[in-house]
Write a structure and sequence with these properties.
- The structure is a single chain.
- This protein is mainly alpha-helical.
- The protein has one domain.
- Helices cover about 75% and strands about 0% of the residues.
- The protein has seven helices and no strands.
- Helix 5 packs antiparallel against helix 6.
- The longest helix has about 40 residues.
- It is globular and about 70 Å long.
- The model has no long low-confidence stretch (mean pLDDT about 85).
């Protein structure tokens, strides 16, 4: 069996799934970028105003100048969201093809949305609980690499929990659905609690001049942008895969 045949799902080849994943990723990335412009941009500008109002550090170490204008950064942010969406879409299509044993009865659309919701929980909600997003002006420059390692490490651990939960559900296939779902949910919750306890706290504190309302507005807006990327990916991918799967199944009869 070739690699492509091994990833075939209900008559659709891996290349077909990958093309739809890339397309869905581009659309969801663009939607996420637009949410970034329409929802996240306002708290970012408010946070920048707070940062610029701070007195310069002794020795001239505090610079308010920008290499690129704010407008250029916004456009670049939308383009970056599309690029990220394409990459995530390709990975999502691969995960969708490889996870066919986990969703043997659900329709392709439901399966795609369920998979995107699981990925959103593992790769967005979990790190947001432990390391919530902070607006500009929060966090020391010399801790960026450490914070990035912590954040990406928690995302990887969260995805492993999601994969492990799916594998556990597959192994418990002979159990009744309510008992199996309860066992898998308890195992996943226990694993998440362990991760939240084991991973160290963020090294930075929020400066006293950053309003609490602004902080929460930014964090909720950032989470909305991420939700648009993941859940939009599942919906668009499902809309692309569902009819193609039905046509492939009909032609095979």
């Amino acid at each position: 069996m070739s690699t492509d045949e091994g990833l075939t799902y209900k008559g659709l080849t891996y290349k077909g799934l990958l093309a739809r994943g890339v397309g869905a990723g581009a659309v969801s990335g663009l939607l996420a970028g637009l949410v970034g412009v329409l929802v996240v941009e306002a708290p970012i500008r408010a946070a920048l105003a707070v940062e610029q109002a701070r007195p310069a550090e002794p020795g001239g170490g505090h610079e308010h100048g920008e290499l690129f204008s704010r407008g250029t950064q916004v456009v670049g942010g939308v383009l970056a969201a599309v690029v990220v969406g394409v990459a995530v879409g390709a990975l999502f299509a691969t995960a969708y093809a490889r996870s066919r044993r986990w969703f043997t009865t659900e329709a392709p659309f439901v399966r795609a949305v369920a998979l995107s919701a699981a990925a959103f929980g593992a790769a967005a909600v979990l790190p947001a609980v432990k390391y919530p997003a902070n607006p500009p002006g929060v966090g020391a420059a010399d801790t960026v690499e450490y914070r990035t390692v912590l954040y990406l490490g928690l995302i990887a651990a969260g995805l492993l929990v999601a994969v492990g939960a799916s594998a556990l559900a597959s192994r418990l296939g002979r159990w009744s659905p309510p008992v199996r779902a309860t066992a898998v949910a308890l195992a996943a919750v226990a694993a998440v609690v362990v991760l939240l306890v084991v991973f160290p706290a963020t090294p930075d504190t929020v400066p006293s001049d950053v309003p609490g309302g602004l902080l929460w507005e930014f964090r909720l807006a950032s989470l909305a942008e991420t939700a648009t990327l993941w859940l939009g990916l599942g919906v668009v991918f499902g809309l692309l895969v569902d009819p193609a799967t039905r046509r492939a199944e009909a032609s095979a009869v």
